[in-house]
C-alpha cells in the first residue's frame, strides 16, 4: 500500500504542526459546561415545582384570591414537569457521531433540513392566523360588536411587528436551510463516486 | 475529564487538527471545529467497546463532525477566499520553512480534492491501513482501494501542476 509517493506525502503531512494546545485548554475549561447548564435547568424546574406546591398550599389554606392561587398552582405544577422532561430530552446528544458514516450524516442532514422547512411552512400559517385574527377583531369593532379601538390599535401594532419580524426571520431561515439541504445533496452525490 | 479521555484527545489532537484543516480554511473556525470534534470524542469515548479500534473511532467522529460543519458553512465559502492557514513556522530555520511550505502546498492540494478522495487521503496520510479506513468511513475494502488510487493520482497531478 505504501509506495514512495505516499511515504513522502506522509512525511510532509505529518510535519505540519497546528498548535492545538489552546483548544485543549479551552476544552478542559468548557467540558463540564453542558452538565452545569443541564443541572441549573433541572434546578429551575424543581424551584418552579416548589413554588407551585406552595401556591397550592396557600390556595388550600387562604380564602382570599383562592381562584388566582389555584390557577397559578395548576399552571406551575403542570408546566414544571413538562418543561423539565422537554429540557432533558432536548439536551441529549442528537447524533451518535461514532456510529454514523459520512453518507448517513448527509442523509440525516437532508431529513433535518426537510423537517425544518416543513416547520417553517407551518410557521408561516401561524402568521396568517394572527393577521386574520386581528382583521376579525377590527371587523367586529367596525360592526360595533365590541368597543375597544384604542386597545386594538396597540394590539394591531404589536401583532404586525411580531408577524413581520417572524416572516422575515422565517424567509431568512428558509434560505439558509435550503442552502444546507442543497449542500448535503451535492456532497452525497460526490460521495457516491464508486457507485 | 477522566485520565483516559484526556490522554486520547491530547494524543490525537495534532492529527485531528490536520484533518480538520483539510475541511476548514479559516483558523478561528478551525479551532472551533477542532474543539467540537474533541468534545464529541470525550462524550462518545465511554461507548467505545473495542479499544483496539480507537483510531478509526476517533477519526470517524472527526470526519463526521467536520462533514456536518461544511454543510453548514458551504454557502459562505463562495465569498471567502482569505487564507489564514497553518501556524506560521518559527523564522530563522530554513529547513522548517521549506517543510512548512511543502506542508501548506499539500494541504491546499488535499482541500481541492473532492470529498471522498479527500477523506481517504487524509486517513492514508495519518498512517491508517485500508481496514482502518474502511472502518472509519463505512466503506468496503475494494472501495477504499479504488478511492485511494484515484485520490493519489489526482493529488500527484495537482502537486505537479503547482
Q: What do you see in this structure?
A:
The complex is a heterodimer of chains A (195) and B (162). By secondary structure, chain A is an all-alpha fold. Chain A is 83% helix and 0% strand. Chain A has 6 helices and no strands. Chain A has helices at 4-15, 21-30, 33-61, 66-91, 102-142, 149-191. Chain A is flat. Chain A starts with a helix and ends with a helix. Residues 81-86 of chain B have low confidence and may be disordered. In chain B, 75% of the residues lie in helices and 0% in strands. Chain B is an all-alpha fold and 162 residues long. In chain B, α2 packs antiparallel against α3 and α6 (130-137) crosses α7 (141-161). The interface between A and B is large, with 45 and 67 residues.
Strand content of chain A: under 5%
Gyration radius of chain B, rounded: 16 Å
The N- to C-terminal Cα distance of chain A equals: 23 Å
Number of helices of chain B: 7
Mean pLDDT of chain B: 84
Given helix and strand content, the structural type of chain B is: mainly alpha
**What composes the largest sheet of chain B?**
none
Structural topology:
The complex is a heterodimer of chains A (195) and B (162).
Chain A: H1 4-15, H2 21-30, H3 33-61, H4 66-91, H5 102-142, H6 149-191
Helix pairs in contact in A: 3-4, 5-6
Chain B: H1 3-23, H2 27-44, H3 54-77, H4 94-112, H5 115-125, H6 130-137, H7 141-161
What key phrases describe this protein's structure?
heterodimer; A: mainly alpha; B: 162 residues; mainly alpha; 7 helices; 0% strand
In short:
Chain A is mainly α and 195 residues long. Chain A is built from six helices and no strands.
